[in-house]
Amino acid sequence: MKQNKLNRSTGGNIVVILFLLIMGLFTAFPIYFSIINAFKPLSELYLFPPRFVVYNPTFNNFKDIIALQSQATVPMERYIFNTVFVAVATTVIYVFLACLAAYPLAKHNFPGKEFIHKLIVFAILFSTQVTALPQYLLMSKTGMLDTYCALIFPALGSSFGVFLVMQFIGAFPDDVIEAARIDGCSEFGVFFKIVFPSVKPAWVTLAILTFIANWNATGTQVIFTESLKLLPTMMNQITAAGIDRAGVAAAVSFILMIPPMVSFILSQSQVVETMAYSGIKE
């Protein structure tokens, strides 16, 4: 018996396409506005109603960042290094640990598994504001304040990555894993040679989310030495002078959003695939 295919009229297709186009433009507008503001002179930034086109584009906002930073005791290269090091180190370590923890929770049975699973889901409900004070006290007692560890270690305690990867691994066929075991592959071999490459969309998405979160982190609550501060902190210090530095602030916002945007554009197909499968039930 033939199944009737669902057909949509040409008019319906046009309506859907127009709706998606409008929503896409609406979503992209803040990014566009941030970009053009970075190249606006101060006289155009405070026009009302605001202009959505730059009439007199200028690079003075970016030159002012360099000029202001040249007067500082710590060079900008140091802030860039701190941010890149913390973001990359946290991303690599967290993705590795999250995948290692997700595999046994998804594919093994052991006492306390259900309790750990529920604890992971429950921990997602806690925001960073709730855990900030306990984390600060813990780092103070262990002597990690004002070190890179104070920026990296708290991020490793997030349960979201474990939950995300666990959902993906849970949908991986058990027969493939059993076949590898019969062939003599160890558990680490099964994980690194079969499971880990197969769930690439999940851990790539997790890597992007982790990198963005740590790229935008300031760490002002735990870092006090100027040479250890991060790039967003330095940028906030530059733009704290008020209206006169509004152009600089716009340029700062543009610079800070470049790495997250580039990383997302380069791996958007992986993110879309992860979002499609992350809701699968075990």
Question: In a nutshell, what does this entry contain?
Answer:
The chain is mainly α and 282 residues long.
Description:
This protein is an all-alpha fold and 282 residues long. The protein folds into two domains: 10-61, no CATH class; 68-278, MetI-like (MetI-like fold, Orthogonal Bundle). Helices cover 70% and strands 0% of the residues. It is built from 14 helices and no strands. α4 (76-107) packs parallel to α7 (149-156) and α11 packs antiparallel against α13.
By CATH, the architecture of the largest domain is named Orthogonal Bundle
> What general form does the structure show?
globular
DSSP E strands, number: 0
Cα-to-Cα separation, first versus last residue = 33 Å
**Could you give the order of the helices and strands?**
HHHHHHHHHHHHHH
Quaternary state, please?
single chain
Profile the largest sheet. Answer: none
What is Rg? 24 Å
**What is the CATH domain class of the largest domain?**
Mainly Alpha
Mean pLDDT level:
81
Uncertain runs with pLDDT below 50, 5 residues or more?
none
- The domain count comes to 2
* CATH T-level topology of the largest domain: MetI-like fold
Number of helices: 14
Helix percent reads over 70%
- The CATH homologous superfamily name of the largest domain equals MetI-like
Write the layout of secondary structure elements.
Elements lengths: L9 H29 L3 H4 L14 H11 L5 H32 L5 H12 L3 H15 L6 H8 L3 H11 L3 H9 L4 H12 L1 H16 L15 H8 L7 H21 L1 H10 L5
Helix pairs in contact: 1-13, 3-13, 4-7, 4-8, 4-11, 9-10, 11-13, 11-14, 12-13
